Amino acid sequence: MLKPSDMTKIRVICPKSVLRDVIDTMHDLKAVHIVDYKGGNFFDLGKPFEENAGYSADLVKVRALISQLNVKGNGKKLSNVDDARGRIKSLECEFVLLTDKILSLKGKQKSFIEEKEKGFGEKLTSAEEALIKADRLGKALPKEAVFSGHIEADIKTAELELKRFREKNSQLLLDFEFSLKQLSEKAEAPMRFAASQNAAIINGWVPTRKLDDLKSKLAKSTEGKFHFESFETDDEAPVELNNPSVIGPFEFFLNLYSLPKHNELDPTILVFLTFPLFFGFMLGDIGYGLVSLLAFFGLRYALRKQESELKLLSNILIVASLATIFFGFVFGEFFGAEIFEHPILNRAHDINLMILVSVIVGAIHVNLGLLVGFYNELSKHGLMKAVFAKFSWIIFEAGVALVAADMILKVLPGASPIGGVMILAALAMLYKAEGALGIIEIPAIFSNMLSYARLFAVGIASVLLAVVINDMAGALMKQGGFFMVAGIGVLIVGHLINLLLGIIGPFLQSMRLHYVEFFPKFYEGGGERYNPFGRAK
Amino acid sequence: MADINTGLIALGAGVAIVGCAFAASIAEKEIGTAAVGAIAEKPETFGKVLVLTVIPETIIIFGLVVAIMIIGMSGGAAA
Question: Could you tell me the pTM of the whole model?
Protein backbone atom coordinates (compact mmCIF):
# COMPACT_ATOMS: atom_id res chain seq x y z
CA MET A 1 0.00 0.00 0.00
CA LEU A 2 2.80 2.40 0.77
CA LYS A 3 5.19 1.06 -1.83
CA PRO A 4 4.77 -0.07 -5.42
CA SER A 5 4.61 -3.83 -6.07
CA ASP A 6 7.90 -5.69 -5.86
CA MET A 7 9.31 -6.52 -9.27
CA THR A 8 11.85 -9.16 -10.23
CA LYS A 9 13.97 -9.00 -13.34
CA ILE A 10 13.77 -12.18 -15.37
CA ARG A 11 15.38 -13.62 -18.43
CA VAL A 12 13.90 -16.45 -20.49
CA ILE A 13 16.07 -18.22 -23.08
CA CYS A 14 14.38 -20.73 -25.34
CA PRO A 15 14.85 -22.44 -28.70
CA LYS A 16 12.89 -20.96 -31.55
CA SER A 17 10.83 -24.13 -31.82
CA VAL A 18 9.02 -23.31 -28.59
CA LEU A 19 9.08 -19.53 -29.00
CA ARG A 20 5.46 -19.47 -30.09
CA ASP A 21 4.38 -21.34 -26.95
CA VAL A 22 6.41 -19.01 -24.75
CA ILE A 23 4.81 -15.96 -26.36
CA ASP A 24 1.30 -17.41 -26.04
CA THR A 25 1.84 -18.27 -22.37
CA MET A 26 3.21 -14.85 -21.51
CA HIS A 27 0.43 -13.12 -23.43
CA ASP A 28 -2.28 -15.06 -21.61
CA LEU A 29 -0.69 -14.47 -18.20
CA LYS A 30 -0.65 -10.66 -18.74
CA ALA A 31 2.15 -10.27 -16.21
CA VAL A 32 5.47 -9.78 -17.99
CA HIS A 33 6.70 -6.27 -18.71
CA ILE A 34 9.03 -6.88 -21.64
CA VAL A 35 12.22 -4.84 -21.94
CA ASP A 36 12.75 -4.35 -25.64
CA TYR A 37 16.13 -5.43 -26.94
CA LYS A 38 17.87 -2.47 -28.45
CA GLY A 39 20.07 -4.42 -30.84
CA GLY A 40 23.78 -4.35 -31.46
CA ASN A 41 26.19 -6.25 -29.22
CA PHE A 42 26.07 -9.85 -30.30
CA PHE A 43 22.50 -10.74 -31.20
CA ASP A 44 20.07 -9.46 -33.79
CA LEU A 45 16.46 -8.58 -33.24
CA GLY A 46 14.08 -11.43 -33.81
CA LYS A 47 11.97 -11.65 -36.95
CA PRO A 48 8.18 -11.53 -36.71
CA PHE A 49 6.26 -14.67 -37.58
CA GLU A 50 5.08 -14.98 -41.19
CA GLU A 51 1.40 -14.70 -40.42
CA ASN A 52 1.97 -11.18 -39.18
CA ALA A 53 1.86 -9.74 -42.70
CA GLY A 54 -1.58 -11.24 -43.21
CA TYR A 55 -2.83 -9.99 -39.83
CA SER A 56 -1.54 -6.50 -40.50
CA ALA A 57 -3.21 -6.34 -43.92
CA ASP A 58 -6.53 -7.56 -42.47
CA LEU A 59 -6.23 -5.11 -39.60
CA VAL A 60 -5.82 -2.21 -42.03
CA LYS A 61 -8.95 -3.29 -43.95
CA VAL A 62 -11.01 -3.70 -40.78
CA ARG A 63 -9.90 -0.34 -39.44
CA ALA A 64 -10.74 1.32 -42.77
CA LEU A 65 -14.26 -0.15 -42.63
CA ILE A 66 -14.66 0.90 -39.01
CA SER A 67 -13.70 4.49 -39.69
CA GLN A 68 -15.78 4.77 -42.87
CA LEU A 69 -18.84 3.36 -41.16
CA ASN A 70 -18.07 5.51 -38.14
CA VAL A 71 -18.42 2.61 -35.72
CA LYS A 72 -17.60 3.22 -32.09
CA GLY A 73 -17.28 0.94 -29.13
CA ASN A 74 -15.17 -1.81 -27.58
CA GLY A 75 -14.42 -5.16 -29.13
CA LYS A 76 -14.29 -8.53 -27.42
CA LYS A 77 -12.01 -11.38 -28.19
CA LEU A 78 -13.27 -13.79 -30.84
CA SER A 79 -12.57 -17.45 -30.30
CA ASN A 80 -12.13 -18.26 -33.97
CA VAL A 81 -10.48 -15.86 -36.37
CA ASP A 82 -9.67 -18.33 -39.14
CA ASP A 83 -12.49 -17.35 -41.42
CA ALA A 84 -11.74 -13.70 -40.64
CA ARG A 85 -10.02 -12.96 -43.90
CA GLY A 86 -12.87 -14.29 -46.02
CA ARG A 87 -15.54 -12.59 -43.91
CA ILE A 88 -13.74 -9.28 -44.05
CA LYS A 89 -13.35 -9.49 -47.80
CA SER A 90 -17.05 -10.18 -48.29
CA LEU A 91 -17.99 -7.38 -45.90
CA GLU A 92 -15.72 -5.07 -47.83
CA CYS A 93 -17.36 -6.02 -51.14
CA GLU A 94 -20.84 -5.52 -49.71
CA PHE A 95 -19.84 -2.12 -48.33
CA VAL A 96 -18.35 -1.04 -51.66
CA LEU A 97 -21.49 -2.19 -53.53
CA LEU A 98 -23.76 -0.23 -51.20
CA THR A 99 -21.74 2.96 -51.29
CA ASP A 100 -21.31 2.75 -55.06
CA LYS A 101 -25.05 2.36 -55.48
CA ILE A 102 -25.72 5.44 -53.39
CA LEU A 103 -23.07 7.42 -55.23
CA SER A 104 -24.41 6.50 -58.68
CA LEU A 105 -27.98 7.27 -57.68
CA LYS A 106 -26.94 10.63 -56.32
CA GLY A 107 -25.04 11.28 -59.53
CA LYS A 108 -28.12 10.52 -61.60
CA GLN A 109 -30.20 12.77 -59.39
CA LYS A 110 -27.73 15.62 -59.78
CA SER A 111 -27.56 15.35 -63.56
CA PHE A 112 -31.35 15.10 -63.71
CA ILE A 113 -31.69 18.31 -61.70
CA GLU A 114 -29.22 20.07 -63.98
CA GLU A 115 -31.17 18.97 -67.05
CA LYS A 116 -34.38 20.08 -65.42
CA GLU A 117 -33.10 23.58 -64.70
CA LYS A 118 -32.00 23.92 -68.30
CA GLY A 119 -34.81 22.01 -70.00
CA PHE A 120 -38.49 22.27 -69.33
CA GLY A 121 -40.10 25.47 -68.12
CA GLU A 122 -42.00 24.53 -64.97
CA LYS A 123 -39.98 23.84 -61.84
CA LEU A 124 -41.16 20.46 -60.67
CA THR A 125 -40.27 20.32 -57.01
CA SER A 126 -41.46 16.85 -56.23
CA ALA A 127 -43.06 13.82 -57.76
CA GLU A 128 -46.35 14.40 -55.95
CA GLU A 129 -46.69 17.98 -57.11
CA ALA A 130 -46.01 16.92 -60.71
CA LEU A 131 -48.54 14.14 -60.43
CA ILE A 132 -51.20 16.48 -59.04
CA LYS A 133 -50.49 19.09 -61.69
CA ALA A 134 -50.63 16.58 -64.50
CA ASP A 135 -53.83 15.10 -63.10
CA ARG A 136 -55.50 18.50 -62.87
CA LEU A 137 -54.45 19.53 -66.36
CA GLY A 138 -55.52 16.13 -67.64
CA LYS A 139 -52.11 15.68 -69.24
CA ALA A 140 -50.11 12.53 -69.35
CA LEU A 141 -47.61 12.22 -66.46
CA PRO A 142 -44.33 13.74 -67.51
CA LYS A 143 -41.74 11.01 -67.48
CA GLU A 144 -39.23 13.21 -65.72
CA ALA A 145 -41.41 13.79 -62.64
CA VAL A 146 -41.92 10.10 -62.02
CA PHE A 147 -38.24 9.52 -62.59
CA SER A 148 -37.32 12.16 -60.02
CA GLY A 149 -39.64 10.68 -57.41
CA HIS A 150 -38.23 7.26 -58.02
CA ILE A 151 -34.68 8.45 -57.58
CA GLU A 152 -35.45 9.98 -54.18
CA ALA A 153 -37.07 6.77 -53.00
CA ASP A 154 -34.19 4.68 -54.34
CA ILE A 155 -31.63 6.82 -52.56
CA LYS A 156 -33.54 6.51 -49.32
CA THR A 157 -33.75 2.74 -49.57
CA ALA A 158 -30.05 2.46 -50.36
CA GLU A 159 -29.13 4.61 -47.36
CA LEU A 160 -31.39 2.52 -45.18
CA GLU A 161 -29.65 -0.62 -46.42
CA LEU A 162 -26.30 0.90 -45.57
CA LYS A 163 -27.50 1.75 -42.08
CA ARG A 164 -28.75 -1.79 -41.56
CA PHE A 165 -25.46 -3.16 -42.84
CA ARG A 166 -23.66 -0.99 -40.33
CA GLU A 167 -25.82 -2.05 -37.40
CA LYS A 168 -25.60 -5.72 -38.29
CA ASN A 169 -21.84 -5.80 -38.61
CA SER A 170 -20.48 -3.13 -36.29
CA GLN A 171 -19.91 -5.41 -33.30
CA LEU A 172 -18.37 -8.02 -35.59
CA LEU A 173 -15.96 -5.46 -36.99
CA LEU A 174 -14.98 -4.29 -33.51
CA ASP A 175 -14.42 -7.87 -32.36
CA PHE A 176 -12.31 -8.55 -35.44
CA GLU A 177 -10.20 -5.49 -34.78
CA PHE A 178 -9.63 -6.47 -31.17
CA SER A 179 -8.75 -10.08 -31.95
CA LEU A 180 -6.54 -9.22 -34.92
CA LYS A 181 -4.75 -6.64 -32.80
CA GLN A 182 -3.97 -9.24 -30.15
CA LEU A 183 -2.82 -11.80 -32.73
CA SER A 184 -0.70 -9.19 -34.45
CA GLU A 185 0.87 -8.26 -31.13
CA LYS A 186 1.80 -11.86 -30.50
CA ALA A 187 3.14 -12.31 -34.03
CA GLU A 188 5.26 -9.16 -33.80
CA ALA A 189 6.63 -9.99 -30.38
CA PRO A 190 9.88 -11.61 -31.63
CA MET A 191 10.98 -8.16 -32.83
CA ARG A 192 11.33 -7.14 -29.17
CA PHE A 193 13.64 -10.04 -28.30
CA ALA A 194 17.25 -10.77 -28.96
CA ALA A 195 17.65 -13.74 -31.27
CA SER A 196 20.35 -15.91 -32.73
CA GLN A 197 19.83 -18.45 -35.47
CA ASN A 198 18.08 -21.00 -33.27
CA ALA A 199 17.33 -19.34 -29.94
CA ALA A 200 15.66 -16.28 -28.51
CA ILE A 201 16.35 -14.27 -25.34
CA ILE A 202 13.55 -12.41 -23.56
CA ASN A 203 14.35 -9.78 -20.91
CA GLY A 204 11.63 -8.44 -18.72
CA TRP A 205 10.15 -7.69 -15.32
CA VAL A 206 7.44 -9.59 -13.54
CA PRO A 207 5.78 -8.85 -10.19
CA THR A 208 7.46 -11.03 -7.56
CA ARG A 209 4.17 -12.51 -6.48
CA LYS A 210 3.59 -13.90 -9.99
CA LEU A 211 7.08 -15.27 -10.47
CA ASP A 212 6.37 -18.89 -9.56
CA ASP A 213 3.18 -18.95 -11.57
CA LEU A 214 5.03 -17.73 -14.66
CA LYS A 215 7.77 -20.29 -14.20
CA SER A 216 5.42 -23.24 -13.82
CA LYS A 217 3.22 -22.19 -16.75
CA LEU A 218 6.25 -21.77 -19.02
CA ALA A 219 7.59 -25.16 -17.96
CA LYS A 220 4.28 -26.75 -18.82
CA SER A 221 3.80 -25.14 -22.21
CA THR A 222 7.37 -25.64 -23.44
CA GLU A 223 7.72 -29.08 -21.79
CA GLY A 224 10.80 -27.89 -19.97
CA LYS A 225 12.66 -26.70 -23.07
CA PHE A 226 13.54 -23.33 -21.71
CA HIS A 227 16.00 -21.64 -19.37
CA PHE A 228 14.70 -19.27 -16.73
CA GLU A 229 16.72 -16.78 -14.68
CA SER A 230 15.61 -14.27 -12.12
CA PHE A 231 18.09 -11.91 -10.58
CA GLU A 232 18.70 -8.88 -8.39
CA THR A 233 19.64 -5.76 -10.24
CA ASP A 234 19.90 -2.03 -9.70
CA ASP A 235 17.99 -1.22 -12.88
CA GLU A 236 14.83 0.80 -12.58
CA ALA A 237 11.89 -1.56 -12.44
CA PRO A 238 8.52 -0.57 -13.87
CA VAL A 239 6.04 0.60 -11.28
CA GLU A 240 2.71 -1.01 -10.50
CA LEU A 241 0.87 0.79 -7.74
CA ASN A 242 -0.50 -1.50 -5.11
CA ASN A 243 -3.50 -0.08 -3.27
CA PRO A 244 -6.70 -1.58 -1.85
CA SER A 245 -9.87 -1.02 -3.82
CA VAL A 246 -11.16 1.96 -1.85
CA ILE A 247 -7.92 3.91 -2.22
CA GLY A 248 -7.29 2.65 -5.78
CA PRO A 249 -9.17 5.37 -7.68
CA PHE A 250 -6.93 8.03 -6.15
CA GLU A 251 -4.08 6.65 -8.25
CA PHE A 252 -5.66 8.90 -10.88
CA PHE A 253 -3.68 11.78 -9.37
CA LEU A 254 -0.46 9.83 -9.52
CA ASN A 255 -1.07 8.77 -13.11
CA LEU A 256 -1.64 12.39 -14.06
CA TYR A 257 1.48 13.69 -12.33
CA SER A 258 4.07 10.90 -12.49
CA LEU A 259 4.55 7.49 -10.91
CA PRO A 260 6.84 7.07 -7.90
CA LYS A 261 10.16 5.29 -8.18
CA HIS A 262 10.75 2.13 -6.17
CA ASN A 263 12.77 3.83 -3.44
CA GLU A 264 9.98 6.30 -2.66
CA LEU A 265 6.80 6.25 -0.65
CA ASP A 266 3.63 5.80 -2.70
CA PRO A 267 1.62 8.87 -1.67
CA THR A 268 -1.77 7.60 -2.85
CA ILE A 269 -3.04 6.97 0.65
CA LEU A 270 -2.04 10.46 1.76
CA VAL A 271 -3.93 11.92 -1.18
CA PHE A 272 -6.88 9.69 -0.23
CA LEU A 273 -6.90 11.24 3.24
CA THR A 274 -6.37 14.90 2.42
CA PHE A 275 -7.95 15.46 -1.01
CA PRO A 276 -11.55 14.81 0.14
CA LEU A 277 -10.92 16.93 3.24
CA PHE A 278 -9.86 19.93 1.18
CA PHE A 279 -12.69 19.38 -1.29
CA GLY A 280 -15.25 19.15 1.50
CA PHE A 281 -13.82 22.18 3.26
CA MET A 282 -14.21 24.26 0.12
CA LEU A 283 -17.64 23.06 -0.92
CA GLY A 284 -18.99 22.38 2.57
CA ASP A 285 -22.74 22.23 1.98
CA ILE A 286 -25.09 19.42 2.93
CA GLY A 287 -27.44 20.00 0.00
CA TYR A 288 -24.71 20.20 -2.63
CA GLY A 289 -22.99 17.20 -1.10
CA LEU A 290 -26.14 15.07 -1.31
CA VAL A 291 -26.86 16.08 -4.91
CA SER A 292 -23.31 15.39 -6.04
CA LEU A 293 -23.25 12.09 -4.15
CA LEU A 294 -26.37 10.93 -5.99
CA ALA A 295 -25.05 12.25 -9.31
CA PHE A 296 -21.75 10.40 -9.01
CA PHE A 297 -23.36 7.19 -7.80
CA GLY A 298 -25.49 7.42 -10.91
CA LEU A 299 -22.48 8.07 -13.10
CA ARG A 300 -20.64 5.11 -11.62
CA TYR A 301 -23.65 2.89 -12.21
CA ALA A 302 -23.94 4.08 -15.81
CA LEU A 303 -20.27 3.31 -16.41
CA ARG A 304 -20.23 0.01 -14.58
CA LYS A 305 -19.40 -2.01 -17.72
CA GLN A 306 -16.45 0.12 -18.79
CA GLU A 307 -13.01 0.75 -17.44
CA SER A 308 -12.27 4.40 -17.95
CA GLU A 309 -10.77 7.43 -16.29
CA LEU A 310 -14.25 8.84 -15.84
CA LYS A 311 -15.08 5.87 -13.63
CA LEU A 312 -12.03 6.60 -11.45
CA LEU A 313 -13.15 10.20 -11.19
CA SER A 314 -16.64 9.21 -10.14
CA ASN A 315 -15.22 7.04 -7.35
CA ILE A 316 -12.98 9.87 -6.17
CA LEU A 317 -15.85 12.33 -6.19
CA ILE A 318 -18.12 9.98 -4.24
CA VAL A 319 -15.61 10.00 -1.38
CA ALA A 320 -15.24 13.76 -1.76
CA SER A 321 -19.03 14.22 -1.61
CA LEU A 322 -19.16 12.33 1.69
CA ALA A 323 -16.57 14.74 3.06
CA THR A 324 -18.65 17.64 1.73
CA ILE A 325 -21.69 16.45 3.66
CA PHE A 326 -19.59 16.16 6.80
CA PHE A 327 -18.28 19.70 6.46
CA GLY A 328 -21.79 20.83 5.62
CA PHE A 329 -22.77 19.77 9.12
CA VAL A 330 -19.73 21.53 10.58
CA PHE A 331 -20.57 24.79 8.79
CA GLY A 332 -24.32 24.36 9.07
CA GLU A 333 -25.19 25.08 5.47
CA PHE A 334 -27.93 23.61 3.31
CA PHE A 335 -28.00 25.01 -0.23
CA GLY A 336 -26.56 28.21 1.16
CA ALA A 337 -29.10 28.63 3.91
CA GLU A 338 -27.91 28.50 7.50
CA ILE A 339 -29.84 25.80 9.24
CA PHE A 340 -28.11 25.67 12.61
CA GLU A 341 -28.28 28.46 15.16
CA HIS A 342 -24.65 28.12 16.21
CA PRO A 343 -22.62 26.04 13.80
CA ILE A 344 -19.08 25.15 14.76
CA LEU A 345 -17.76 27.55 12.14
CA ASN A 346 -19.89 30.10 10.35
CA ARG A 347 -18.24 30.65 7.00
CA ALA A 348 -19.75 33.95 6.06
CA HIS A 349 -19.15 35.69 9.38
CA ASP A 350 -16.13 34.16 11.12
CA ILE A 351 -13.86 35.33 8.33
CA ASN A 352 -10.68 35.89 10.29
CA LEU A 353 -11.06 32.57 12.04
CA MET A 354 -11.54 30.84 8.70
CA ILE A 355 -8.38 32.38 7.22
CA LEU A 356 -6.48 31.30 10.32
CA VAL A 357 -7.85 27.76 10.12
CA SER A 358 -6.93 27.56 6.42
CA VAL A 359 -3.36 28.69 6.99
CA ILE A 360 -2.98 26.32 9.95
CA VAL A 361 -4.24 23.45 7.77
CA GLY A 362 -1.64 24.58 5.24
CA ALA A 363 1.10 24.52 7.83
CA ILE A 364 0.11 21.00 8.90
CA HIS A 365 -0.03 19.73 5.31
CA VAL A 366 3.31 21.26 4.32
CA ASN A 367 4.97 19.82 7.40
CA LEU A 368 3.44 16.45 6.65
CA GLY A 369 5.08 16.73 3.25
CA LEU A 370 8.40 17.53 4.89
CA LEU A 371 8.09 14.53 7.20
CA VAL A 372 7.41 12.23 4.25
CA GLY A 373 10.38 13.86 2.52
CA PHE A 374 12.46 13.10 5.59
CA TYR A 375 11.45 9.43 5.36
CA ASN A 376 12.24 9.32 1.63
CA GLU A 377 15.66 10.90 2.08
CA LEU A 378 16.30 8.50 4.96
CA SER A 379 15.72 5.50 2.73
CA LYS A 380 17.60 6.99 -0.19
CA HIS A 381 20.60 8.79 1.26
CA GLY A 382 20.81 8.03 4.97
CA LEU A 383 20.15 9.83 8.22
CA MET A 384 22.57 12.78 8.00
CA LYS A 385 21.38 13.90 4.57
CA ALA A 386 17.77 13.51 5.65
CA VAL A 387 18.27 15.65 8.75
CA PHE A 388 20.16 18.35 6.88
CA ALA A 389 17.84 18.51 3.88
CA LYS A 390 14.41 18.13 5.42
CA PHE A 391 14.51 18.39 9.16
CA SER A 392 16.26 21.72 8.85
CA TRP A 393 13.03 23.20 7.52
CA ILE A 394 11.19 22.10 10.65
CA ILE A 395 13.86 23.58 12.87
CA PHE A 396 13.66 26.78 10.83
CA GLU A 397 9.89 26.96 11.33
CA ALA A 398 10.23 26.30 15.03
CA GLY A 399 12.83 29.07 15.26
CA VAL A 400 10.58 31.53 13.43
CA ALA A 401 7.65 30.52 15.63
CA LEU A 402 9.70 31.24 18.77
CA VAL A 403 10.84 34.63 17.48
CA ALA A 404 7.29 35.52 16.48
CA ALA A 405 5.93 34.35 19.81
CA ASP A 406 8.34 36.64 21.59
CA MET A 407 8.36 39.73 19.41
CA ILE A 408 4.90 39.84 17.82
CA LEU A 409 2.63 37.96 20.17
CA LYS A 410 4.66 38.70 23.29
CA VAL A 411 3.83 35.29 24.70
CA LEU A 412 7.25 33.80 25.48
CA PRO A 413 9.64 36.52 26.57
CA GLY A 414 13.29 35.76 26.04
CA ALA A 415 12.66 33.19 23.36
CA SER A 416 14.06 35.32 20.53
CA PRO A 417 17.72 34.41 21.03
CA ILE A 418 16.89 30.71 21.08
CA GLY A 419 14.74 31.18 18.00
CA GLY A 420 17.48 33.13 16.26
CA VAL A 421 20.03 30.39 16.95
CA MET A 422 17.63 27.77 15.63
CA ILE A 423 17.08 29.78 12.46
CA LEU A 424 20.81 30.17 11.85
CA ALA A 425 21.42 26.47 12.52
CA ALA A 426 18.66 25.52 10.10
CA LEU A 427 20.06 27.81 7.40
CA ALA A 428 23.51 26.31 7.85
CA MET A 429 22.19 22.76 7.61
CA LEU A 430 20.15 23.59 4.52
CA TYR A 431 23.15 25.22 2.85
CA LYS A 432 25.21 22.10 3.52
CA ALA A 433 22.55 19.82 2.10
CA GLU A 434 21.35 21.71 -0.94
CA GLY A 435 23.61 24.69 -1.45
CA ALA A 436 22.50 28.21 -2.20
CA LEU A 437 19.38 27.02 -4.03
CA GLY A 438 18.09 25.63 -0.75
CA ILE A 439 18.46 29.01 0.95
CA ILE A 440 16.58 30.72 -1.88
CA GLU A 441 13.66 28.41 -1.25
CA ILE A 442 13.17 29.69 2.31
CA PRO A 443 10.51 32.34 1.53
CA ALA A 444 8.72 29.73 -0.61
CA ILE A 445 7.58 27.84 2.45
CA PHE A 446 5.61 30.79 3.77
CA SER A 447 4.08 31.44 0.39
CA ASN A 448 3.08 27.77 0.27
CA MET A 449 1.34 27.93 3.61
CA LEU A 450 -0.45 31.12 2.62
CA SER A 451 -1.56 29.47 -0.58
CA TYR A 452 -3.85 27.32 1.52
CA ALA A 453 -5.89 30.45 2.13
CA ARG A 454 -7.62 29.41 -1.05
CA LEU A 455 -9.46 26.82 1.05
CA PHE A 456 -11.21 29.74 2.66
CA ALA A 457 -11.46 31.88 -0.47
CA VAL A 458 -13.04 29.34 -2.80
CA GLY A 459 -15.35 28.30 0.03
CA ILE A 460 -16.64 31.74 0.80
CA ALA A 461 -17.15 32.46 -2.91
CA SER A 462 -19.36 29.40 -3.13
CA VAL A 463 -21.29 30.33 0.03
CA LEU A 464 -21.90 33.94 -0.98
CA LEU A 465 -23.07 32.90 -4.45
CA ALA A 466 -25.56 30.51 -2.87
CA VAL A 467 -26.76 33.27 -0.49
CA VAL A 468 -27.27 35.63 -3.43
CA ILE A 469 -29.27 32.98 -5.31
CA ASN A 470 -31.42 32.37 -2.25
CA ASP A 471 -32.04 36.09 -1.76
CA MET A 472 -32.98 36.60 -5.39
CA ALA A 473 -35.37 33.67 -5.33
CA GLY A 474 -36.81 34.83 -2.04
CA ALA A 475 -37.45 38.32 -3.38
CA LEU A 476 -39.21 36.89 -6.42
CA MET A 477 -41.29 34.47 -4.42
CA LYS A 478 -42.51 37.19 -2.04
CA GLN A 479 -44.39 38.79 -4.91
CA GLY A 480 -46.59 35.75 -5.18
CA GLY A 481 -48.55 34.35 -8.08
CA PHE A 482 -46.57 33.79 -11.26
CA PHE A 483 -43.39 34.98 -9.59
CA MET A 484 -43.42 31.90 -7.38
CA VAL A 485 -42.68 29.79 -10.43
CA ALA A 486 -39.98 32.22 -11.56
CA GLY A 487 -38.51 32.10 -8.08
CA ILE A 488 -38.35 28.33 -8.08
CA GLY A 489 -36.76 28.45 -11.53
CA VAL A 490 -34.10 30.87 -10.34
CA LEU A 491 -33.47 28.64 -7.36
CA ILE A 492 -33.00 25.48 -9.42
CA VAL A 493 -30.92 26.99 -12.22
CA GLY A 494 -28.83 29.07 -9.86
CA HIS A 495 -28.00 26.21 -7.52
CA LEU A 496 -27.22 23.91 -10.44
CA ILE A 497 -24.72 26.42 -11.78
CA ASN A 498 -23.24 26.93 -8.32
CA LEU A 499 -23.00 23.17 -7.85
CA LEU A 500 -21.18 22.80 -11.16
CA LEU A 501 -18.74 25.56 -10.25
CA GLY A 502 -18.48 24.08 -6.80
CA ILE A 503 -17.41 20.71 -8.12
CA ILE A 504 -14.97 21.93 -10.75
CA GLY A 505 -13.39 24.69 -8.65
CA PRO A 506 -12.60 22.84 -5.41
CA PHE A 507 -11.55 19.76 -7.39
CA LEU A 508 -8.96 21.69 -9.37
CA GLN A 509 -7.83 23.76 -6.40
CA SER A 510 -7.39 20.69 -4.18
CA MET A 511 -5.50 18.95 -6.94
CA ARG A 512 -3.31 22.01 -7.38
CA LEU A 513 -2.60 22.23 -3.67
CA HIS A 514 -1.39 18.64 -3.73
CA TYR A 515 0.70 19.02 -6.89
CA VAL A 516 2.33 22.38 -6.19
CA GLU A 517 2.57 22.58 -2.39
CA PHE A 518 2.59 19.01 -1.13
CA PHE A 519 4.36 16.83 -3.71
CA PRO A 520 7.47 18.97 -4.27
CA LYS A 521 8.38 18.58 -0.60
CA PHE A 522 9.13 14.90 -0.96
CA TYR A 523 8.26 13.51 -4.36
CA GLU A 524 10.70 12.75 -7.12
CA GLY A 525 8.60 10.67 -9.46
CA GLY A 526 9.65 9.53 -12.90
CA GLY A 527 8.74 5.89 -12.47
CA GLU A 528 8.07 3.92 -15.62
CA ARG A 529 4.56 2.61 -15.94
CA TYR A 530 4.12 -1.15 -15.70
CA ASN A 531 2.80 -2.27 -19.07
CA PRO A 532 2.50 -6.08 -19.16
CA PHE A 533 2.53 -8.00 -22.42
CA GLY A 534 -1.00 -9.05 -23.19
CA ARG A 535 -2.91 -6.34 -21.41
CA ALA A 536 -5.21 -4.37 -23.73
CA LYS A 537 -4.04 -0.75 -23.89
CA MET B 1 -22.06 54.51 6.61
CA ALA B 2 -22.21 57.71 4.60
CA ASP B 3 -18.76 59.18 5.14
CA ILE B 4 -15.92 59.34 2.68
CA ASN B 5 -13.59 57.18 4.79
CA THR B 6 -15.74 54.10 4.36
CA GLY B 7 -15.95 54.77 0.65
CA LEU B 8 -12.19 55.10 0.32
CA ILE B 9 -11.61 51.90 2.28
CA ALA B 10 -14.04 50.09 -0.01
CA LEU B 11 -12.27 51.52 -3.05
CA GLY B 12 -8.96 50.36 -1.67
CA ALA B 13 -10.23 46.83 -1.29
CA GLY B 14 -11.67 47.05 -4.78
CA VAL B 15 -8.36 48.16 -6.29
CA ALA B 16 -6.62 45.22 -4.62
CA ILE B 17 -8.99 42.80 -6.27
CA VAL B 18 -9.02 44.52 -9.67
CA GLY B 19 -5.27 44.50 -10.04
CA CYS B 20 -5.01 40.85 -9.06
CA ALA B 21 -7.91 39.91 -11.30
CA PHE B 22 -6.22 41.51 -14.30
CA ALA B 23 -2.98 39.72 -13.54
CA ALA B 24 -4.59 36.33 -13.03
CA SER B 25 -6.76 36.61 -16.13
CA ILE B 26 -3.87 37.68 -18.38
CA ALA B 27 -1.75 34.82 -17.04
CA GLU B 28 -4.46 32.21 -17.47
CA LYS B 29 -5.31 33.54 -20.89
CA GLU B 30 -1.82 32.90 -22.19
CA ILE B 31 -1.58 29.52 -20.51
CA GLY B 32 -5.05 28.56 -21.72
CA THR B 33 -4.17 29.38 -25.32
CA ALA B 34 -1.11 27.17 -25.20
CA ALA B 35 -3.11 24.51 -23.35
CA VAL B 36 -5.77 24.25 -26.04
CA GLY B 37 -3.04 23.98 -28.65
CA ALA B 38 -1.45 21.11 -26.74
CA ILE B 39 -4.76 19.30 -26.33
CA ALA B 40 -5.52 19.64 -30.04
CA GLU B 41 -2.32 17.79 -30.77
CA LYS B 42 -2.36 15.27 -27.94
CA PRO B 43 -5.69 14.85 -26.13
CA GLU B 44 -4.26 12.71 -23.33
CA THR B 45 -2.40 15.68 -21.86
CA PHE B 46 -5.72 17.27 -20.88
CA GLY B 47 -5.37 16.63 -17.15
CA LYS B 48 -1.82 17.98 -16.84
CA VAL B 49 -2.67 20.98 -18.95
CA LEU B 50 -5.76 21.76 -16.89
CA VAL B 51 -3.69 21.84 -13.70
CA LEU B 52 -1.14 24.16 -15.30
CA THR B 53 -3.92 26.50 -16.39
CA VAL B 54 -5.26 26.84 -12.87
CA ILE B 55 -1.91 27.62 -11.22
CA PRO B 56 -2.26 31.46 -11.39
CA GLU B 57 -5.36 31.29 -9.16
CA THR B 58 -2.99 32.02 -6.27
CA ILE B 59 -2.72 35.63 -7.43
CA ILE B 60 -6.39 36.38 -7.12
CA ILE B 61 -6.66 34.60 -3.80
CA PHE B 62 -3.94 36.76 -2.36
CA GLY B 63 -5.92 39.72 -3.68
CA LEU B 64 -8.99 38.52 -1.85
CA VAL B 65 -7.03 38.09 1.37
CA VAL B 66 -5.59 41.62 1.08
CA ALA B 67 -9.03 43.07 0.40
CA ILE B 68 -10.47 41.35 3.45
CA MET B 69 -7.58 42.54 5.58
CA ILE B 70 -8.10 46.10 4.38
CA ILE B 71 -11.76 45.96 5.33
CA GLY B 72 -10.85 44.26 8.58
CA MET B 73 -8.21 46.89 9.45
CA SER B 74 -10.79 49.58 9.25
CA GLY B 75 -12.27 47.97 12.33
CA GLY B 76 -15.08 46.35 10.46
CA ALA B 77 -16.67 49.76 10.03
CA ALA B 78 -17.26 49.06 6.39
CA ALA B 79 -18.64 45.57 7.05
Answer: 0.79
